[in-house]
Each structure stands twice: as C-alpha cells, then as structure tokens.
Write a structure and sequence with these properties.
Blueprint lengths: L2 E5 L8 E5 L1 H12 L5 H8 L3 H13 L19 E9 L4 H12 L4 E6 L6 E7 L2 H13 L4 E8 L16
Antiparallel strand pairs: 1-2, 3-5, 3-6, 4-5
Length: about 170
C-alpha cells in the first residue's frame, strides 16, 4: 500500500494527490543524501532498474514532490559568514501589503528563506550576508526605507549546531 501525499499549489491551481511506494521513498531518500548521483548509481542505491529510476524521478519532479536539485555551499568559505534570523512586523497587514513586502524581499539574494507566520511577527526571514556592514545595507534597503515596516527584530547566529534540509520520509 502506497503513501498518499498532497502537493501544495498556488490559489489558481488544484491540489493533486500522488501515491508513493517504497521504491519512490528509497529514491527520495537517496536524493536527499546526494542529488548528484547519476541515474545508474541512484538506481543501484534504490534497488530499481535504471529505466524505472529515470521514469520515477521524472514523475516525482513533474508532480512537484522534488522541487529542485541543488548543491549546498559553505557560506563561511565563500565569504558570507553572518547568518541572521529576522522577525518583521508590518503596520498594515492587508493581503496587498503582505504580498508587496514579500515580493520585495524575495528579490534579495541574501534572503535565503522567507516565511509569512502567525501569530507574532508577520514574517520571519533567514539571511546570509558577508558581515555586519552588508547586513546594515540590507536593513536600509529592505526595512528602514519601507514605511510599512513597524518592527525589525534580528537574531545573529554565533554557532550553527545543525543545518539539514532533509525531510523525514514515512516508512513504506
């Protein structure tokens, strides 16, 4: 019996359901460890044929289960060693104000993650910048010059204990 998952869609799209079996889950588990595996190696690790593996990965991509495949880079080694978790509260929370703020922050490369949250602040952002000077410049661009930003509360990472984008998969 396969697991059923729903795919979150935009408001204009419908919600779809995809059945995942144990082979799909093994493929996903392998890809979470190393998305650079060749199809041959992925098939071997997931215990399926290469043709089956290729077909299933395409289905998982098309179904939105696999959003994208990326490389995780070392921020410190690339000169972007300051991590900040920032809470933003807006003065006006109408849908158009929330969307306008989100659209603006999504254009910034330093914004790694953006969450609209409730209750509490309106947004939580995860930022990665080279240093405090770069952070201050970003604050000026995104928050200080925006008349709708009421409050900014920043937390700076002094040590990263864990960073793991892996999602716990159900057992087949």
């Amino acid at each position: 019996m396969g697991q059923y998952f729903t795919k979150h869609m935009d408001m204009n799209e419908s919600i779809t359901t995809m059945t995942l079996d144990s082979a799909d889950l093994r493929i996903l588990d392998c890809l979470q460890d190393d998305a650079s595996l060749s199809n041959q190696d992925l098939a071997r690790h997931a215990h399926v044929s290469p043709a089956t593996c290729l077909r299933r990965v395409k289905r998982l991509l098309d179904g939105g289960i696999i959003e994208r495949r990326v490389a995780l880079l070392s921020a410190e080694k690339l000169g972007a060693g300051l991590s900040a978790i920032v809470e933003i509260t807006l003065d006006r929370q109408g849908a158009e104000h929330l969307m306008a703020f989100e659209s603006k922050v999504l254009t910034e490369a330093a914004v790694q993650q953006c969450y609209q949250v409730s209750p509490g602040p309106d947004f939580v952002l995860i930022l990665q910048v080279p240093d405090m000077v770069a952070y201050q410049a970003l604050v000026m661009r995104l928050f200080t010059q925006d008349a709708n930003v009421r409050n900014v509360k920043a937390f700076f990472s002094v040590r990263r204990g864990k960073f793991e984008p892996r999602i716990a998969l159900p057992r087949a």
